[in-house]
Specification:
Elements (H helix, E strand, L loop, with lengths): L2 H17 L2 H4 L7 H21 L7 H15 L8 H23 L3 H27 L18 H15 L8 H13 L4 H18 L3 H18 L2 H13 L4 H12 L5 H19 L23 H9 L4 H12 L7 H14 L10 H39 L1
Helix pairs in contact: 1-3, 1-6, 3-5, 4-5, 4-15, 5-17, 6-7, 6-8, 7-8, 7-9, 7-16, 7-17, 8-9, 9-16, 13-14, 15-16
């Protein structure tokens, strides 16, 4: 097997294991995620060795961000309580940066980037299928009745992964299948009943529609889909489906309250109330130490709560004070550094969604499906930037040759 083919195997394996969240799902069999990171690391070792000996390992903005993130994490460990939670937080961050660097290496070339995006498209279709199956068979994967989650076992990250999958794989889906792909992703997200993921899908699909242009053919397709959806809702089949979901426990008061958010603009369910309470507590801890923070890991153990802030910005403010805002800002800048027209369809929707998703999750910097997506987008931007830099040199090299032919 050639090195090129071997590298492709590593790319497919990494995407299939981590973007699907199989690495976390496999914990039920005693295979913790660290084992899978080590497995991909060992699988990639020959490629790393060849790249090191040929001096082809590059320092990229995202690696510099990772180094700064680790330095901050370690420096802020000393003013923390230095307990098991703080130590575990440092370990988690170290592993996240190692994983990010490994994915950056695997996605270094345009061919690997395209293969990764194609694999994500397949993973996306499987995830949508699992979510639809779980809608009619509650608790197959999810721990909450009526909310599909697939291999994520948690509906919110499942919805976020589907939005990221749409952003990353839309461009490699055949043009005639893109609208069905966007709609199918929307269906998969709706089954999670994750309001934040639904909002993310609306933002991303709206951005894709704007960039693709609203042709007559596209408008007809959208109108036809809208008519079919509305017609189904007002048909006897909808009532039969509703009754079936209620009987199976897939439609309950909590889910109805969640959907009411889109009509009333108010979130009054238990989850929303808990999110508000932990956010207030996190903000209180930040205001107590706004300049130096409370130390690494402080946001992981909020007094009086079993959960954290559900917001990465407040999470980092609690740990690092006002300087914590530089961590997420730095991540976005390092990922999108030098993004141009060639990657605009992926880079800007990705940056927008990640920035918004951070308001609903404090796990942005540790969940491997997000880190994999960050590495892939950063690699695509870097490749496009490198191609732009080389273009004038190639053009200059052609001019003398053309002049000699003319002479």
């Amino acid at each position: 097997m050639s090195l090129h083919r071997y590298r492709q195997v590593c790319v497919v394996a990494a995407v299939a294991i981590f973007f699907s969240n199989f690495a976390n799902y496999a914990e039920r069999w005693g295979l913790i995620p660290l084992y899978w990171v080590a497995f991909i690391g060992m699988l990639s070792a020959p490629l790393l060795l060849v790249a090191a000996t040929e001096s082809r390992l590059q320092v990229r903005p995202l690696l510099l961000w990772g180094a700064g993130y680790l330095l901050m994490s370690i420096a802020w460990y000393f003013p923390s309580r230095q307990d098991d939670i703080a130590y575990q937080e440092v370990q988690t961050r170290v592993l996240s940066v190692i994983f990010l660097a490994l994915m950056l290496f695997l996605f270094a070339g345009p061919a690997e980037q395209r293969l990764a995006r194609q694999t994500i498209a397949l993973v996306q279709l499987v995830a949508i299928g699992l979510n639809i199956y779980e809608l009619f068979n509650p608790l197959t994967f999810s721990k909450i009745p009526g909310r599909s989650s697939g291999l994520f076992e948690n509906s919110n990250p499942c919805g976020a992964a589907l939005v990221l999958g749409l952003i990353l794989s839309y461009g490699v889906v055949p043009s005639r299948l893109r609208l069905p792909f966007v709609l199918a992703t929307g269906v998969g997200i709706v089954t999670t009943f994750s309001r934040s993921a639904m909002l993310g899908w609306v933002l991303v699909s709206g951005n894709l529609a704007f960039r693709s242009g609203l042709s007559i053919q596209r408008l007809r397709a959208v109108a036809a889909a809208g008519v079919l959806i509305v017609g189904f809702i007002f048909s006897p089949w909808w009532r039969q489906l509703e009754q079936k979901l209620e009987q199976r426990g897939a439609l309950n008061l909590d889910l109805i309250q969640r959907l009411a958010f889109f009509t009333t603009g108010r979130a009054s369910d238990d989850s929303a109330n808990e999110r508000y309470s932990v956010l207030v507590k996190g903000w209180e801890l930040f205001t107590n130490h706004p300049f130096i923070g409370n130390g690494t890991g402080a946001a992981r153990d909020l007094p009086g709560f079993d959960v954290s802030t559900h917001n990465i910005y407040v999470y980092l403010l609690v740990d690092h004070g006002i300087l914590g805002l530089a961590i997420m800002a730095g991540l976005l800048v390092a990922t999108l550094w030098g993004a141009g027209r060639a990657t605009a369809e992926v880079a800007w929707p990705f940056g927008l969604f990640l920035a918004v998703w951070g308001m609903f999750s404090h796990n942005v910097l540790e969940e491997r499906y997000i880190l994999l997506a960050v590495a892939l987008v950063a690699s695509m931007v870097a490749s496009a930037r490198h191609a732009r830099a080389e273009a004038p040199e190639k053009q200059a090299a052609r001019i003398p040759a053309e002049a000699m032919v003319t002479a």
